[in-house]
Design a protein that fits this description.
387 residues; alpha+beta; Helix Hairpins; Heat Shock Protein 90; 2 domains; elongated
């Protein structure tokens, strides 16, 4: 007898239940990661304190050894010239030498104990770092699973041509989204979030100082103002990384020029940027893609290439945008990076390749270890009717 398949509604209910369960697990993993981060900070402070204490003990041992050596010399002299010194003098010299010897033994034991504590703390800190790393990876993987379930499988009853290819692209896009979200979350956690916490503390200090010490209160307010300015700068940087507003206001070329200027100031790498292009006729998606390719390339150069010069050529010829990026860095095995697991370091290159292919363009990445890198991109421009 024929049994009907599960309805799309029922499938979606099952998936939503699964998503809820995964969401709870993701929150728990996030709490574990946050707890591990806090433990890392606590262990770092404790380790720094132990290191300073150990340095102090070592200095004390060195000083005591000098004093102990002098006391032994004095004891030898007193013992040798017993006619010139009384029995009491000899006794005092012996007791001083013995006391210093005991102190040295105790301090050396204290030094050993501190070294052991430092070693134990370093092991605990390493383990905590590992927990944070694993928790972040789990959060990212769970996010991918959730995105896949909530996005790609909700319409599971609708069969589409080439569904395997679409699912693969969907997973890749979700991975990129999760990595970007994780990066932004980390930047906000380490930047503006910390600054806002400092603002609250400084505000409370100012509140208490207003009636006691107005000059100190003014000083704290000045520091508070500097913290807010720094936080605002961090927020603007995060916004710029997400979507540079100048791309909409000024266009592609000024946005790229501004990014290159900042890149040169931060890295001291010389960038030769030549351009022969007009913003008119280039749709916003193409402009954003070209900017992201340049941004990703320069970020890779900043992190890995150890280059001294970079050449970027951007031109529009025969309804096509041509982009060339060349650096004189240490290079890499391009074929292995593009074909390997994206977690091994080739994910940025893979996303660049996906961007170009989605715009029906071509990208050619050539690089060998020790011979620099050359990236050539060609993107066809759509007609106004297609846009």
């Amino acid at each position: 007898m024929y049994k009907p398949a599960l309805s799309a509604k029922k499938m979606n209910e099952i998936i939503e239940s699964t998503i809820d369960a995964i969401e709870k697990g993701k929150n728990e993993i996030f709490e574990i990661a946050e707890s591990a981060r806090n433990e890392c900070k606590s262990l770092e402070k404790e380790l720094e304190h132990i290191k300073l204490k150990a340095i102090h003990i070592i200095d004390e041992v060195d000083s005591l050894e000098i004093l102990e050596k002098r006391s032994r010399v004095k004891l030898a002299m007193v013992s040798k010239n017993f006619k010139e010194f009384t029995e009491e003098d000899i006794k005092i010299a012996y007791e001083e030498a013995n006391a210093l010897k005991v102190k040295i033994v105790l301090k050396r034991q204290e030094e050993k104990d501190l070294i052991k504590q430092r070693s134990d703390l370093e092991k605990r800190l390493k383990a905590s770092y590992e927990v944070v790393k694993r928790a972040e990876n789990l959060v990212s993987q769970v996010g991918v699973a959730m995105g896949y379930l909530s996005g790609n499988l909700k319409g599971i009853s609708e069969q589409l041509e080439g569904i395997q290819q679409k699912e693969a692209v969907g997973i890749k896009v979700i991975k990129a989204q999760e990595e970007e979200r994780q990066r932004v979350a980390r930047e906000i956690h380490d930047g503006p979030a910390q600054s806002m916490a400092n603002v609250v503390i400084k505000a409370e200090i100012c509140e208490k100082l207003f009636d006691r010490d107005m000059e100190k209160a003014k000083h704290e307010l000045t520091e508070l103002k500097n913290i807010v300015r720094g936080s605002l700068k961090d927020v603007r940087k995060i916004i710029y990384d997400l979507r540079p507003m100048s791309l909409d206001d000024l266009g592609l070329v000024p946005t790229v020029q501004r990014f290159i200027i900042n890149f040169e100031e931060e890295t001291k790498v010389d960038v030769d940027f030549s351009v022969n292009i007009e913003n008119e006729g280039i749709n916003s998606i193409t402009q954003l893609s070209v900017f992201r390719i340049i941004q990703e390339s320069l970020n890779n150069i900043r992190k890995y290439a150890k280059a001294s010069t970079v050449i970027i050529k951007l031109e529009m010829i025969h309804e096509r945008i041509n982009l060339l990026i060349v650096d004189d860095g240490i290079g890499f095995d391009a074929q292995r990076k593009l074909s390997s697991n994206k977690r091994e370091g080739g994910f940025g290159l893979f996303i660049m390749k996906e961007r170009v292919e989605l715009l029906k363009g071509k990208i050619d990445i050539k690089s060998n270890t020790g011979k620099g890198t050359r990236i050539k991109v060609t993107i066809p421009l759509k007609s106004r009717e297609e846009q």
